[in-house]
Every structure is written in structure tokens, then in C-alpha cells.
Amino acid sequence: GPFLMDGAVLYFSLPISEPYFVLGWAGCVMLAYQLYDAPTLGRAMALGLAAAATTLVRTEAIAIVAGLLVALLVLRASWRIVAAYLGTALAPLVAWTWLHAHMLATGPVSTQPDELPYTAWLPLHSVGDAVRIAAAALRVTWYGYWRLVPPYVSDVRIAAIVVLAICLLLALVGSVLLARRHPTLPATVLAASVVLLLWPWPQDRFVFSRLPFAGLLMGVAVQGGARRAAPRVRLLIYGALVLLAAGVGTRGATLRQF
Question: What is this structure's pTM?
Fold first, then answer.
């Protein structure tokens, strides 16, 4: 993940918020694990504030807010913990929504599309509109990412697809292994992936912010397999990972000419 993200961030000359999104997401995961170890209202509120801050930096982090809520429900956290988290996560977002609406109402208002609210980009007037846009987005995004992502892995397309398929399988296995004991990582990665596929303008940088966390899921699966393997097989597994990281890292750094 970090290897691929470096090339994408350097490619864009405009200031982008992906690094702060990744930092906030990682902080939320760490705070969530601390909350599970010692469930207190203070830690629940800290988690909610971290999720809110991440969402204020990047709107798509609302998926992280939802994923953390799902994780708390899976772990059967008390209603006080859930309420403290959800209240502190939503309060800043509601306040910003009100302030933003007030600024739009009083003006002046930008006419640039990229400075308007994301909701202004999509004609969401009814549930039917939302369903139609989601279906259309899925038709666009799956092909868009099918075209965008493999070149970052290898210039041999079939090799890149095989590597990505293995990585996806490992991430799914890691998600299953963590789903009941530590659901935060699987839940947030799943929620963020859903948002990725439903946003109808695919870009490579959107994928890269998910990769470090998907990589952790893959690591869980690899560690589980390596623990049960013979010592020589374990060395082969770790050696393959080193070669893969070196190859993908080199490819990501040399893909763009600056």
C-alpha cells in the first residue's frame, strides 16, 4: 500500500487529502482497539471525535464512521458506549453541515464544480435516483479500476491481475479471521470499498488510500498460514513477500516520469 501510494501522491501536483485520510483512519483503528480493551465513555468519545475529524478532512471517511459503528455492534458494546461514540462522531458533522448551509445561503458562492458540495454533483432527488446512480456507478468503476490498478503492479497485465487476485483473496481470508474477534479493520475496509465503488469517477489515488489497511488484512492471512507451515516453507513465504514489495515498490516509483 505505501509503495503504491507514493507514486500516486507525487503524480498529482494539487494538494490532496489522502495522507490525512489515511492518518485519521489509522488513528481510529488504534483508538478502537484501545476501546475494546478498556470500554470507557472517554475512549468512546475520543474514537468518535477522531472519526469526525477524519470525515471533516475527507468526506468519504463517513464510511469509517459507519464501519466503526458496525464493529461496535458486532462486539455487542453497551448502548452507552455506542451512544457516546455516535454522538461525538455526528455532532461535529451536523454542526459543519449547518454552518456550510448557512454560508451557501449568505454567499458569495463559488461557481467552480470542484468547490461545490459533492451532493450537487449527483441528482439525488429520490430513492429511485440513488439506486439508478449506484447501478450506473458500479458499471463504470469496476472497469475503471480494472484498467487503472494493474499497471502499478506490473507492465505484464496478466501477471499483475494474478498478483492482485491473490492479494484480494488473502484480504478476504484475513477479514474472515478477524471478523468476530477484531472487526474494526474488516468493517472499515469493507465500508470504504463500497464508497469507492459507488463513486462514479474512478481515480487511482482513491484506491491507494485503502491499500495499507487491506495490506494488514492480507498480513493476518499470511501470518496464519506461515505459523502452520514448515520452517522452510515459512522462509519461502517471507522471501516472496520481500520480492513482491520490492518489485511493486520499484514499479510504482518508476511508473510516472516527473
Answer: 0.85
